[in-house]
Amino acid sequence: MMISVMEQKGSTTMTTDRLSLMTCYSGWDNYQISLARTVARLTHEQLAWRPTQEHRSVGELVQHIIIEGRIDWIGNVLGEGSAELKAWPTTPAVHEDTVELVKGLETSWQMIEDALTRWSTADLAQTYSVTYNGKNHIITRQWVIWHVLSHDTHHGGELTLMLGMQGIALPELGEGGHLAERAPLAE
C-alpha cells in the first residue's frame, strides 16, 4: 500500500496505489474475534434458548449470521469461498453445537478477510445482477460489503440482548457495551 501527499499550488492531493479493503474495514476483524469468543463460551442450553417461540434461538441467530449474511452474499453473490463453505449445513444439530458455530464464524470470516485483503478500493464499483422477488437489481461490491457488515452488527446486537436476557456475563462487551473494544490505548 502506498499513500502519498503532494502539494499543488496551495492544495493537497492524495494518491493511492491499491489500498486494500482490509485497511478500509479495519475493526471488523476485531468484531469477528469477539463474536466467536462469545459463542465459544455458550452451552447447548444457552444456544437453544429463544425469547419466544416465534423468535430464533441463540444458535439459529448465529447460524443466520453465517449463512444468510456472509455465505449468501459474499460467497454466493460475489463468488468467494469454497464449495464446502457454501454448502454449510442448516440442521438443528449445527445451530445447537458451539464447536460447529464457531467453526462457521471463523471459516466464513476467513472468506471475507481473504476477499477484503485481495480487493482494493477500485474494486468497490464492480457490479452484480441479483434477482429478488422477481425483480432484477444491479448492486455493487460496496453495497454487498456494507450489507454484510451491517447484518453482522445488527444481529450481533440482537445476540447480545438475547444473552443478557439469560443473565449471561459477556466479558467481550467490556464497560463500553460493545463487542469490539480493542482500540489501542493512548500512551
Name some characteristics of this structure:
14% strand, two-stranded antiparallel sheet, 8 helices, 187 residues, Four Helix Bundle (Hemerythrin (Met), subunit A), disordered N terminus, 51% helix, alpha+beta, 4 strands, globular
Structure characterization notes:
This protein is of the alpha+beta class and 187 residues long. The chain has a single domain (29-173), classed as Four Helix Bundle (Hemerythrin (Met), subunit A) (Up-down Bundle), CATH 1.20.120.450. It has helices at 21-24, 28-40, 44-48, 58-77, 83-86, 92-95, 98-118, 141-165, and strands spanning 2-8, 11-17, 127-132, 135-140. It is globular and about 45 Å long. It starts with a strand and ends in a 22-residue tail after the last helix. The model is unreliable at 1-16 (pLDDT under 50).
CATH architecture annotation? Up-down Bundle
Sequence stretches where pLDDT stays below 50 over 5 or more residues: 1-16
Structural class: alpha+beta
- SSE string, helix = H, strand = E? EEHHHHHHHEEH
Nearest-integer average pLDDT? 85
The rough form would be described as: globular
| Helix content percent band | 40-55%
> What is the number of strand segments?
4
| Radius of gyration over C-alpha positions, nearest whole angstrom | 19 Å
List the domain count as a whole number: 1
Q: Distance between the terminal alpha carbons, to the nearest Å?
A: 26 Å
Largest beta-sheet characterization: 2 strands, antiparallel
CATH C-level class is: Mainly Alpha
Strand order of the largest sheet: 1-2
Within the CATH hierarchy, at the fold level, what is the topology?
Four Helix Bundle (Hemerythrin (Met), subunit A)
Q: In DSSP terms, counting alpha (H) and pi (I) runs of 4 or more, how many helices?
A: 8
Strand content: 5-15%
CATH superfamily placement: dinb family like domain
